[in-house]
Amino acid sequence: MKFCLGVLAAALLGGASAVASPAADTYAVARDCTRSALPCYTSLQLALNAAERDQSERWIEIRVMPGDYEEKPVIRRNRIKIVGAGRNVSRLHFGAVAQTSGRYHRAKWGTPGSATLTINAAEVRISDITIENTFDYLANDSLAGSDAGKIANPQAVALLLDVASDSVAISDAAILGYQDTLFTNGGRAWIARSLIAGNIDFIFGNGQLLIEDSEIRTRKRAAEIAPGEFHSFIAAPSTPLSQSTGLVIYRSRLTREPGVPDASVALARPWHPTKRFADGRYADPEAVGHALFIECHMDAHIHPDHWAPMNGTSRDGTMGTVFHPQDARFAERGSTGPGAASKPIGMTWRDARSLQEIRQEFASIPLGR
């Protein structure tokens, strides 16, 4: 089905579609549906709601016409295609932040609740669109820690691959934010020929994610960073030990915005999420992150250590436990550029699998198409 996206504010308020015909298999979403020959809706969420009423197993395509659409849609139906008119002209955006977004999440968790677009379904295809979280991270980052107006939890997700997501393919898209831009928290996903931008842990989570032929752009900070300290971190995987693949970035360009210093950005750091166990609540020891960079071009902002430690919750509730990259499943091979050279920091883990072997885990996704 193909849909036209219209005024997103109307969608959030449950506004009516210009034409309602959920029996079709192509919808449109447009700012103005009066000229659409397709069943047309004024928001993506309205089009997705219509798609959910279709109980068949066929694919439904939603065409997002040029325009800016401010909303927080959730994809719950399997076999959905969302096709924009180009990432420079079709833009989905919202400005939620973790501090105040628990109300959007089933378990009242702010970080996933902040997502602009949530995918919680299997066999989803998205292309030619921008997905952005517009929370003003830089304004908040510029405030002193003692400032009463500073938001303590500034995570602002653009795209959430939620727990029921699997076999997701995204191509020719832009996924934009600052801290926690892309949260992979479900099954397998593949991203190609796309731009992913952020600064703190902006590709993170426990899912299986293969990124190819894309640009991974580090964005600047507003806070003053002491000399020698890390400016930011690209990835923060929390891959369970039972899972062989976490975050794989292949033949992509690691770039930076103006203002990001040389030798200041880590490829990854190990995230051990806080969980509740029978003997207490602390960082999950079984979340041994997997991050693999293969044949990437790395600009000079990449730190020569390549990897960084990360603190986690201790049994006493403090953040005093330090997880070291040497104990994670981190590796890089075959990369080029001024940031590719690294100094020894005791990394010993190796992933001997070829890219072809890794791609077999994503076999149900139309890789390369």
List the helices and strands and how they pair.
Blueprint: E1 3-4, H1 8-12, E2 26-29, E3 40-41, H2 44-53, E4 60-64, E5 67-70, E6 74-75, E7 80-84, E8 90-94, H3 110-113, E9 117-119, E10 122-127, E11 130-133, H4 137-141, E12 159-161, E13 166-171, E14 174-176, E15 182-184, E16 188-192, E17 195-198, E18 200-205, E19 208-212, E20 215-218, E21 232-237, E22 247-250, E23 253-256, E24 265-268, E25 274-277, E26 280-283, E27 290-294, E28 297-298, E29 310-312, E30 321-323, E31 329-333, H5 355-359
Parallel strand pairs: 1-2, 2-3, 2-4, 4-7, 5-8, 6-9, 7-10, 8-11, 9-12, 10-13, 11-14, 12-15, 13-16, 14-17, 15-18, 16-19, 17-20, 18-21, 19-22, 20-23, 21-24, 22-27, 23-28, 27-31
Antiparallel strand pairs: 25-26, 29-30
